[in-house]
Amino acid sequence: MSRVFAYCRVSTVEQTTENQVHEIRAAGYSIEPRRVVAEVVSGSVAARQREGFAKLRDRLESGDVLVVTKLDRLGRNAMDVRATVEELQGAGVRVHCLALGGADLTSAAGKMTMSVLSAVAEFERDLLLERTAAGLARAKEAGRTLGRPQALNAKQRSLVQERLAAGHAIAAIARDLSTSRQTIMRIRNQVSATAL
């Protein structure tokens, strides 16, 4: 008889995995509390880099079933989810996702679903990159300055250069201008680079 595990993840400590556990049990999965792995970790962290998921992976054996409420619980993007599912499938573990009707992602239909979702995610990512590039080009054409606003104006940068040339300490200059040491060091490095 196969063992059933649940993997539940939230991104912040203010959130709880209780709803995910409830949803999995409401879908008919009987999971022992010791087989529910819950962790608080950002979705931007790859599954294999998550401490809780790594421990779960070590416990899973061929024939086991892993249940998640949504695909994004498993990985940071479609490629990560697919790699995670393929790794689990290679170990003989079936992966069920409630958001896809409880589909077994390691079955033929599950693999097709994963392929379609991966293609859609890649398409959306490419569209986002195109829109971003077009927006940046329009902003440049309009003469807008891109990037972070400068911490100091031209007059203040000139003052920094004068004080650096006079041998004043970086920390003292930063304190006097109410800015960070990194800002002063950046100006110093820019001056050094243009002097070469």
Q: Would you kindly provide a written description of the structure presented here, covering whatever features stand out?
A:
The protein is an alpha/beta fold and 196 residues long. It contains 7 helices and 5 strands; from the N terminus they run βαβαβαββαααα. A 5-stranded mixed beta sheet has the order 2-1-3-4-5, sandwiched between helices. Strand 1, helix 1 (18-26) and strand 2 (36-40) form a beta-alpha-beta unit. The termini are far apart. The mean pLDDT is 88.
Averaged pLDDT: 88
How many helical stretches?
A: 7
Sequence of secondary-structure elements = EHEHEHEEHHHH
Largest sheet: 5 strands, mixed
Strand content: 5-15%
Distance between the termini: 72 Å
Q: What class do helices, strands and sheet pairing give? A: alpha/beta
Low-confidence stretches: none
Helix content percent band: 40-55%
Coarse shape = elongated
Spatial arrangement of strands, main beta sheet: 2-1-3-4-5
How many β-strand stretches?
A: 5
Question: How big is the Rg?
Answer: 26 Å
Please outline what is shown here.
By secondary structure, the chain is an alpha/beta fold. The chain is built from 7 helices and 5 strands.
Which short descriptors sum up this protein?
196 residues; alpha/beta; five-stranded mixed β-sheet
